[in-house]
Specification:
The protein is an alpha+beta fold. The protein is built from 15 helices and 11 strands. The strands form 2 sheets. It has a 6-stranded mixed beta sheet with strand order 1-2-6-3-5-4. It has a 5-stranded mixed beta sheet with strand order 7-11-8-10-9, sandwiched between helices.
Length: 423
């Protein structure tokens, strides 16, 4: 399989198709999100994503029943750096899907009552997620203080209340300006169907892009220059989140992916083995790689009993130092990543996201399905991963956030400083 690219009406359209599959995924990726928002409009991208769905519902009678009748699923998601809409379904419904897809671009025509209903839904989401009281919110503020990446994706109720239909349509025109979005089709889609999609896109009107957005963020003076300090908030339960700053210009995307896989992916993941299988301190954990063109942060969080906090930190420091010295199976992790990429080709929705993200959103090693190493993992050695671990897992890159009570910060800080012994 090889990616195809078309330019239609000033818009980039990509495809990676496979006629052996029974389904398709058609996606729209927009350069928008909280890192591009003004403080006074923080949350408008997420609101816009919701409003587009309500606009679609007004276009079609019994919209969700109609989708179910055709076996289609329409989804939307807002990230810090882009908005993603997707339509998936059986291959024989692609033509009807393109009709709905092109309505995503339509002018927003909602009355005040309809707008307020969607605002109430978002405010309920903000309330239910209780974002400000989470360790994720606290950690995000510590890592990205003063940066565009510090802003909330959901936004805030007072700001949401002040966004009008007029403002949303201005935002819509910015989103759908030439060069600010692209279209991706994966799965069982024929050349004829691609041509029909191109004809539909050709009929749409898009304004010229006034300001090109880049997937970079500014950082504060502490980024890559942090002190070994625990950041603690009182809480009955004990939660820990640990992250490390990354200078993404120093390492290839494939190396960062492999390092992430060694730590976190699957039952072979060292964090799983060290903290759960071999030393059952925790049952599960959550991990994230937040990445921009210039910088990023690799992090993980877990809940732990108070009397085992110090033990958990000792194990984590030992684990990270073991990776620096090469105590991991490189060949197994490389093979697993290659197998994951291979199996993803059978899942049009996952493949769509990966191809769009790695090849057209993030400036990194591209995914290439015509290459046996899928492009991203070509010529990477174990030494490359070890050197990345030595460069990233340092005290000067580390942020630690804790929620708990009566934590012995001094003792934990001494443990963390051992990280630099194998730098």
């Amino acid at each position: 399989m090889k990616e195809q690219m078309y330019s239609v009406n000033g818009i980039e359209l990509y495809s990676l198709t496979n006629s052996a599959l029974k389904s398709f995924c058609l996606s729209l990726y927009i350069r928008a999100g909280s890192i591009f928002e003004k403080e006074s409009e923080n949350g408008i991208s997420h609101l816009f994503e919701h409003i587009v769905f309500r606009n679609l519902k007004n276009k079609y009678e019994n919209f969700y029943e109609l989708l179910a009748l055709h076996g289609l699923d329409v989804q939307g998601c807002t990230y810090k750096e882009f908005i993603h809409f997707s339509i998936t379904g059986p291959y024989y419904e692609f033509d009807f899907a393109t009709e709905i897809f092109c309505e995503l671009f339509a002018e927003i025509k909602l009355n005040k009552d309809e707008l307020n209903k969607e605002k109430k839904r978002i405010k309920a989401e903000i309330r239910e997620k209780d974002e400000r009281n989470t360790i994720d919110y606290y950690f995000n503020k510590l890592v990205w203080a003063g940066s565009e990446a510090e802003k909330s994706i959901l936004g805030y109720c007072k700001i949401i209340d002040n966004i009008s239909i007029k403002k949303l349509n201005v935002f819509r025109e910015e989103c759908f300006s030439k060069g600010n979005f692209f279209i991706y089709a994966t799965g069982n889609v024929s050349e004829k169907e691609i041509d029909e999609l191109k004809k539909r896109v050709e009929k749409l009107n898009f304004q010229e892009n006034k300001a090109k957005k880049t997937n970079t963020v500014t950082v504060n003076e502490n980024f890559l220059n942090r002190e070994c300090i625990l950041n603690i908030r009182n809480n009955y339960w004990h939660y820990i989140k640990i992250g490390f700053d990354i200078d993404c210009t120093e390492y290839s995307g494939g190396v960062i992916d492999l390092l992430y896989a060694v730590l976190f992916e699957g039952d072979k993941a060292l964090l799983h083995n060290y903290l759960s299988e071999d030393n059952p301190i925790i049952y599960s954990y959550e991990c994230t790689l937040e990445q921009y063109d210039n910088v990023g942060n690799i992090n993980f969080k877990f809940e732990v009993r108070k009397d085992r906090i110090e033990e958990a930190f000792k194990i984590i420091v030992g684990l990270l130092n073991d990776i620096k010295s090469g105590q991991f199976n490189f060949d197994v992790n490389l093979k697993a990543e290659i197998c994951n990429a291979e199996m993803e080709s059978d899942r049009p929705e996952d493949l769509n996201w990966s191809m769009a993200y790695y090849n057209h959103i993030l400036k990194t090693d591209k995914l290439d399905y015509s290459d046996e190493y899928y492009g991203r993992f070509k010529n990477i050695t174990k030494e490359d991963v070890m050197q990345a671990a030595k460069g990233i897992f340092r005290v000067s890159n580390m942020t630690v956030a804790l929620k708990g009570n009566k934590i012995k910060a001094d003792e934990i800080e001494k443990i963390l400083k051992i990280l630099d012994e194998r730098a």
